[in-house]
């Protein structure tokens, strides 16, 4: 078969975890250097790879705000890459940088890229607990500035109702999904625990996993002092762990450059199709809280461009920050959560660990290893950003094929067919409402502190609401309230107060 010389493939991968028992991890820049060199060595090329790198992509680092991350890394590695970029803060970043590198190759603008990311968040946490700052290099003058423009992403009513933490919004969407599929709270959580138990089994065998422990489903759902509720229905063992010391790197080459470098065919894993789409930025304005049209569009777009179907996938790594992200992806793929196939090749974000924006770099690296070992088949990697807002997907295979850059407008169109819901910031008087999604937050002692609800109002309107009433919190936590009638009344600071 004739291969397009511009077809993108991954030729080298590297990952590493620095464990607490071994002491502090190096600073992030040094992590990037180590895994970058290791990924280059992994390619097994006959000719030097680093001097040929013409594009350098650095995943956003939460641990330390460098003044110019790509330039600093280029200096350390002696690179003269013409194209350099840093990603934004997002769980889609690693895969989107691979996609960007591939699109530059297809356009004839690049033929060898290095994608690197790493965090030393566990080390940083220990330093901060000791009241000290790590002696790391090159801080930015605006090191304390927020990593994203929060005003773009958060409305005043969302500030007022504290619709900020992803665990809160993902947990709320979980309740909307369980109502749609007709399962009670305990039954739905048990189904999710089966999926996450299989993920923990993968982590237990993975050398990089932060928590290499296999959990039975009941160990994930039973609330204890070690497994407290975070945001109902999620206990701690079913949510992502971000404070890890981990780094990963990928070397992406055009088919022609891989040939020129003498990279063996068995080291190459080809990017066969990819997609990206976005749901509405603000949760309450989404037409559907129980599923994601954008996620479905991204994954089916990736599969379509690869020319394969769901049944052709031999491996999955579905972004697993919280259970709803995984179940939304399974729903989009038409897969039953009860099927025995693991949803991850790493162990997932709660068990392998999710190093801020860099998790997909790790999942891609492990997918490459799995496909190399198999010598056949396809793998799907997904990533999720913000409040289940951004969705990226990519298909990898051992053999090259016809590859096209996606039509992103066409991929976005399905997510925009249904009109957005108009959100009322604050009600002016007491009004009836119906709960569309909700969660109950808990503090570190396990006590319920506040509930957030997304509610439907008359005329197709939506609103956020909060309650701290003890009886209301207990009722919301222990029952099923999606679809039930409640009341809203005006509260202090523009908060809609929920009465159940």
Explain how this protein is built.
The chain is of the alpha+beta class and 500 residues long. It has two domains: 8-130 and 241-416, Thiolase/Chalcone synthase (Peroxisomal Thiolase, Chain A, domain 1, 3-Layer(aba) Sandwich); 431-499, OB fold (Dihydrolipoamide Acetyltransferase, E2P), CATH 2.40.50.840. Helices cover 32% and strands 22% of the residues. The protein has 15 helices and 16 strands. It has helices at residues 28-42, 69-77, 93-106, 121-129, 150-153, 156-160, 166-181, 185-204, 217-221, 255-261, 293-306, 323-333, 359-374, 408-412, 470-478, and strands spanning 8-17, 55-58, 83-86, 112-120, 229-231, 234-235, 245-254, 269-278, 313-317, 378-385, 390-397, 431-442, 448-456, 462-467, 485-490, 496-499. The protein has a nine-stranded mixed sheet, sandwiched between helices. A five-stranded antiparallel sheet has the order 14-13-12-15-16. A two-stranded antiparallel sheet has the order 5-6. The radius of gyration is 23 Å and the shape is globular. The mean pLDDT is 95.
Quick take:
The chain contains 15 helices and 16 strands. It has 500 residues and is an alpha+beta fold. The chain starts with 7 loop residues before the first strand and ends with a strand.
């Amino acid at each position: 078969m004739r291969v397009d010389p511009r077809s993108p493939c991954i030729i080298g991968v590297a990952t590493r975890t620095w464990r607490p028992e071994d002491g502090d991890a190096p600073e992030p820049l040094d992590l990037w250097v180590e895994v970058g060199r290791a990924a280059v060595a992994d390619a097994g090329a006959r000719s030097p790879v680093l001097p040929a790198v013409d594009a350098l992509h650095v995943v956003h680092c939460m641990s330390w705000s460098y003044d110019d991350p790509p330039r600093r890394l280029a200096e350390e590695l002696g690179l003269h890459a013409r194209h350099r970029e840093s990603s934004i803060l997002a769980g889609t970043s690693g895969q989107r940088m691979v996609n960007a590198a591939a699109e530059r190759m297809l356009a004839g603008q690049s033929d060898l890229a290095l994608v690197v990311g790493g965090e030393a968040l566990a080390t940083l946490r220990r330093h901060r607990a000791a009241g000290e700052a790590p002696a790391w290099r090159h801080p930015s003058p605006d090191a304390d500035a927020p990593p994203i423009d929060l005003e773009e992403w958060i409305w005043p009513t969302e500030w007022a109702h504290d619709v900020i933490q992803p665990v809160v919004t993902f947990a709320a969407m979980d309740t909307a999904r369980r109502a749609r599929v007709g399962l009670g709270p305990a039954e739905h959580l048990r189904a999710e625990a089966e999926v996450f138990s299989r993920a923990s089994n993968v982590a237990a065998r993975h050398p990089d996993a932060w928590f290499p422990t296999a959990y039975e489903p009941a160990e994930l759902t039973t609330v204890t002092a070690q497994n407290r509720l975070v945001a109902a229905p999620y206990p701690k063992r079913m949510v992502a762990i971000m404070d890890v010391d981990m780094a990963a790197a990928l070397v992406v080459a055009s088919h022609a450059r891989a040939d020129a470098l003498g990279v063996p065919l068995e080291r190459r894993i080809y990017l066969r199709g990819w997609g990206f789409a976005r749901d509405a930025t603000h949760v309450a304005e989404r037409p559907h809280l129980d599923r994601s049209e954008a996620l479905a569009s991204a994954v089916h777009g990736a599969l379509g461009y690869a020319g394969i179907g769901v049944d052709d996938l031999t491996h999955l790594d579905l972004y697993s920050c919280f259970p709803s992200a995984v179940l939304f992806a399974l729903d989009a793929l038409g897969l039953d959560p009860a099927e025995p196939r693991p949803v991850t090749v790493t162990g997932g974000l709660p068990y392998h660990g999710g190093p801020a924006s860099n998790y997909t770099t790790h999942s891609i690296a492990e997918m490459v290893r799995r496909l190399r070992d198999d010598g056949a088949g396809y793998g799907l990697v997904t990533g999720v950003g913000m409040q289940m807002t951004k969705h990226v997907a990519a298909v990898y295979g051992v053999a090259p094929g016809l590859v096209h850059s996606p039509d992103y407008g066409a991929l976005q169109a399905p997510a925009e067919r249904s009109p957005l819901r108009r959100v009322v910031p604050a009600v002016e008087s007491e009004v009836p409402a119906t709960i569309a999604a909700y969660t109950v937050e808990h503090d570190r002692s396990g006590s319920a502190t506040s509930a957030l609800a997304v509610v439907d109002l008359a005329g197709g309107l939506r609103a956020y609401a909060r309650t701290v009433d003890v009886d209301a919190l207990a009722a919301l936590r222990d029952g099923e309230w999606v679809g039930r009638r409640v009341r809203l009344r005006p509260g202090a600071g523009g908060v809609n107060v929920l009465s159940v």
